[in-house]
Protein backbone atom coordinates (compact mmCIF):
# COMPACT_ATOMS: atom_id res chain seq x y z
CA UNK A 1 0.00 0.00 0.00
CA UNK A 2 1.31 3.42 -0.92
CA UNK A 3 2.26 5.70 1.94
CA UNK A 4 3.56 9.21 2.36
CA UNK A 5 5.93 7.96 5.05
CA UNK A 6 9.47 6.88 4.19
CA UNK A 7 10.19 3.15 4.19
CA UNK A 8 13.12 1.19 5.59
CA UNK A 9 14.41 -2.17 4.49
CA UNK A 10 14.93 -4.80 7.15
CA UNK A 11 16.63 -8.06 6.18
CA UNK A 12 14.70 -10.97 7.64
CA UNK A 13 17.53 -13.02 9.09
CA UNK A 14 16.98 -15.82 11.60
CA UNK A 15 16.74 -13.46 14.59
CA UNK A 16 14.26 -11.12 12.91
CA UNK A 17 12.18 -14.07 11.71
CA UNK A 18 12.01 -15.39 15.29
CA UNK A 19 11.03 -11.92 16.55
CA UNK A 20 8.23 -11.80 13.99
CA UNK A 21 6.99 -15.23 15.11
CA UNK A 22 7.03 -14.12 18.76
CA UNK A 23 5.40 -10.78 17.90
CA UNK A 24 2.59 -12.48 16.02
CA UNK A 25 1.64 -14.33 19.20
CA UNK A 26 0.72 -10.93 20.64
CA UNK A 27 -0.26 -8.83 17.62
CA UNK A 28 -2.18 -11.60 15.88
CA UNK A 29 -1.23 -14.78 14.09
CA UNK A 30 -2.51 -13.40 10.76
CA UNK A 31 -0.86 -9.98 11.09
CA UNK A 32 1.45 -9.02 8.25
CA UNK A 33 5.14 -8.87 9.07
CA UNK A 34 5.16 -5.09 8.59
CA UNK A 35 2.52 -4.60 11.30
CA UNK A 36 4.38 -6.94 13.67
CA UNK A 37 7.69 -5.18 13.02
CA UNK A 38 6.11 -1.78 13.63
CA UNK A 39 4.75 -2.95 16.99
CA UNK A 40 8.14 -4.42 17.90
CA UNK A 41 9.98 -1.24 16.91
CA UNK A 42 7.70 1.00 18.95
CA UNK A 43 7.89 -1.26 22.01
CA UNK A 44 11.62 -1.67 21.51
CA UNK A 45 12.16 2.09 21.57
CA UNK A 46 10.37 2.30 24.92
CA UNK A 47 12.41 -0.63 26.26
CA UNK A 48 15.73 0.87 25.10
CA UNK A 49 14.92 4.16 26.85
CA UNK A 50 13.81 2.37 30.02
CA UNK A 51 16.95 0.21 30.05
CA UNK A 52 19.19 3.25 29.56
CA UNK A 53 17.49 5.08 32.45
CA UNK A 54 17.84 2.03 34.70
CA UNK A 55 21.54 1.73 33.84
CA UNK A 56 22.07 5.43 34.56
CA UNK A 57 20.31 5.15 37.93
CA UNK A 58 22.29 2.02 38.82
CA UNK A 59 25.56 3.74 37.95
CA UNK A 60 24.65 6.76 40.05
CA UNK A 61 23.79 4.47 42.96
CA UNK A 62 27.09 2.60 42.68
CA UNK A 63 28.98 5.88 42.65
CA UNK A 64 27.06 7.02 45.74
CA UNK A 65 27.97 3.77 47.50
CA UNK A 66 31.64 4.20 46.57
CA UNK A 67 31.59 7.82 47.78
CA UNK A 68 29.80 6.90 51.00
CA UNK A 69 26.80 9.10 50.27
CA UNK A 70 24.25 6.34 49.59
CA UNK A 71 23.00 6.12 53.15
CA UNK A 72 23.86 2.43 53.34
CA UNK A 73 25.51 1.23 56.52
CA UNK A 74 28.21 -0.88 54.90
CA UNK A 75 29.58 -2.10 58.23
CA UNK A 76 26.14 -3.40 59.20
CA UNK A 77 25.79 -5.10 55.81
CA UNK A 78 29.21 -6.77 56.18
CA UNK A 79 28.21 -8.33 59.50
CA UNK A 80 24.53 -9.01 58.77
CA UNK A 81 25.00 -12.74 58.26
CA UNK A 82 26.93 -13.10 61.51
CA UNK A 83 24.32 -11.14 63.44
CA UNK A 84 21.42 -13.06 61.86
CA UNK A 85 22.64 -16.39 63.25
CA UNK A 86 23.15 -15.26 66.84
Walk me through the topology:
Layout: H1 14-27, H2 33-67, H3 74-78, H4 80-84
Explained architecture:
Helix content is 69%, strand content 0%. The protein is mainly alpha-helical and 86 residues long. It has one domain (14-84). α1 (14-27) crosses α2 (33-67). The model has no long low-confidence stretch (mean pLDDT 92).
Write a compact overview of the structure shown.
This protein has helices spanning 14-27, 33-67, 74-78, 80-84. The protein is an all-alpha fold and 86 residues long.
| Shape field | elongated
Question: Share of helix among residues?
Answer: 55-70%
User: Uncertain regions: pLDDT < 50 for 5+ in a row?
Assistant: none
Helix count? Answer: 4
Mean of all residue-level pLDDT scores: 92
Keywords for this structure?
elongated; 86 residues
Amino acid sequence: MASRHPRVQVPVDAEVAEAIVRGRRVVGEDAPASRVLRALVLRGADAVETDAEAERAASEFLVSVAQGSSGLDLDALRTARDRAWR
